[in-house]
Amino acid sequence: MGSEARCTVRHGRTTAEAQVLLESTEVVVRGEIRLKIPFRTMTAVRARDGRLTIVWPEGTTVLELGPAAAIWAEKIRNPKRLIDKLGVKPDQRVSVTGIDDADFLGQLTERTQHASVGRITRGSAAIFLGVESVAGLERIARAAQAITRDGMIWVVWAKGRPALNEDHVRGAARRAGLVDVKVAAFSDTLSALKLVIPVERR
Predict the structure, then answer these.
(1) What's the pTM?
(2) Assigned fold of 3-77
C-alpha cells in the first residue's frame, strides 16, 4: 500500500497535525499524536465528508484525509495479500532463505511451483533474503549474482532494532551495485526493502 499523508488527526481529546502512513497491516500516526492501529483490531472503519473514522480498542481516531478517506477505507477493508504486495507473479522462479513465516510461505507455494526454500537458485526472478545482523547483509551481493537482470531482491529484517535498520540495508545494497525502489511492511514485526539492478546496467 505505502500510502502517506499529512493531515489533522483527532484521537480522544487531542487534535494535532501528523504524518499518517497506510501500511499493509496497520495505520501509523507520527507526530504529537503517535499511534499504531493494526487492521485486525479495528471494529469499525467509516469514510464520510473527507474524514476517515477508525474505532478500535484504544478509542476513536479521526483522520482528515479529504478525497483520500474513501480510498484508504477501501484498502483497509480489503487489503492486498502479502504475495501480491511483494509482486510475485504466477509460476515465477523464487528463492527464499532466512525467512520462517508460515503465512508468507503458504501464499508463495500457492502462487508458484518454482519456489526454492532454504537456498538461493540462480535465475530467480525474486529472492527473499531474511537477515538478522549487519554482517548478514553481505549475502545481498551473492543474491545479486543469482537474480535475473530484471529480477528483485526483498531484504527482510526485524522492525525497531537500531542495530539493523533501513539505512544499513540501503548501504549494503549500494555496495552490491543495487538500488532500492520500495519499502514494505512484511508483517507486524518485519520490514522489507526491495532491491533491483539499476536500469542502465540491465
Answers:
(1) 0.73
(2) PH-domain like (2.30.29)
